[in-house]
Design a protein that fits this description.
The protein is of the alpha/beta class. The protein is built from 9 helices and 13 strands. The protein has a single domain, classed as Vaccinia Virus protein VP39 (Rossmann fold), CATH 3.40.50.150. The strands form 3 sheets. It has a 7-stranded mixed β-sheet with strand order 6-5-4-7-8-13-10, with helices on both faces. Helix 5 links the parallel strand 7 and strand 8. The longest helix is centred in the N-terminal third of the chain and has 16 residues. The radius of gyration is 19 Å and the shape is globular. Bound molecules: zinc ion.
Length: about 280
């Protein structure tokens, strides 16, 4: 079994909640897949239906309004710490965050997905590059903010990503990230049925393990909260039937919701299992 990628521990690793493919580190509490997928397997995971199917996002482009509502909240929180300068986003996807952030910061972004980057570059005219973050890191000592929304859990080497992010920050700059929080109520209840257990997620953090990793790279946590996501009724119906994609019950619920006139109204939904962390370079 591979060592814990956060603390290096190789001892007493257990299966997380009886899942034979995910280990739980007995030292820092990180959950991580025992065998990393190959590049070919990853490419299959991120094929076109990743953004517009039922593997991760049901229709990422159509949900732009809701996605930007929660990004507005992230920006409001960030502005309490940084009022401008340069911002780098790792895993910028279609550029929905950068489109808003460019009103405050001079922005740059990178993402692995060619389809997403093509949209961010050609439709939103954002300065973004296609590639993996580990080979396209921020330039050293350059940025006031490095942002990583729901990205670290996807990366092969989260420790390297945090190291590269810390390197890219100027002294006193901020790393801001969101990721699922394993040590909260909902995953403890739902166990292997938790919606975060998808093939694209390779690492499962908690407040404990993310703090451990950030501090190891000279980053001090200055903000910690559990944040909501804006969801439409249509999305909520999809979320609660997540594990039953082909059931008749899901089809009936979906078609009932589709008929509601307010199915696309966005409502903030906080399941207290998504953490928002801001850490400052010391
Ligand atoms: Zn560990």
């Amino acid at each position: 079994m591979r060592a814990c990628p956060v603390c290096g521990n190789t001892q007493n690793q257990m299966d997380l909640w009886g899942m034979s493919n995910i280990a739980l580190c007995s030292v820092c509490g990180l959950g991580y897949v025992k065998h990393l997928p190959t590049l070919e397997e990853l490419a299959a995971i991120y094929a076109a239906d990743y953004w517009n199917g039922r593997k991760a996002y049901t229709d990422y482009l159509a949900d732009k309004v809701g996605t930007q509502l929660h990004f507005q909240h992230r920006i409001k929180s960030l502005r309490e710490f940084s009022s401008g300068g340069r911002l780098f986003e790792a895993g910028c996807a279609y550029g929905f965050f950068l489109e808003l952030a460019q009103k405050v910061w001079t922005v740059k972004g990178v993402d692995l997905s060619e389809a997403a980057i093509a949209y961010a570059r050609d439709t939103l005219h954002l300065p973004v590059e296609q590639g993996d973050f580990e080979s396209n890191p921020p330039e050293p000592d350059t940025y006031d903010v490095v942002a990583m929304w729901d990205t670290i859990e996807h990366l092969y080497d989260p420790a390297l990503a945090i190291a590269k992010s810390a390197e890219g920050l100027r002294q006193g700059g901020y790393l801001a990230l969101t990721t699922a929080d394993l040590e909260t109520l909902l995953p403890r209840i739902q166990k292997s049925a938790w919606r975060m257990f998808i093939p694209a997620h390779l690492h499962y953090f908690s407040r404990r393990s993310i703090t451990y990793l950030l501090e190891a790279h000279g980053l001090k946590v200055v903000h910690f909260s559990h944040v909501s996501y804006y969801r439409s009724l249509r999305q909520m119906a999809q979320i609660i039937t997540w594990n039953k994609p082909d059931s008749a019950w899901r089809q009936r619920l979906q078609s009932a919701v589709e008929r509601l006139p307010f199915m696309n109204t966005y409502i903030p939904l906080n399941l207290y299992d998504l953490m928002f962390v801001i850490a400052q370079k010391q």
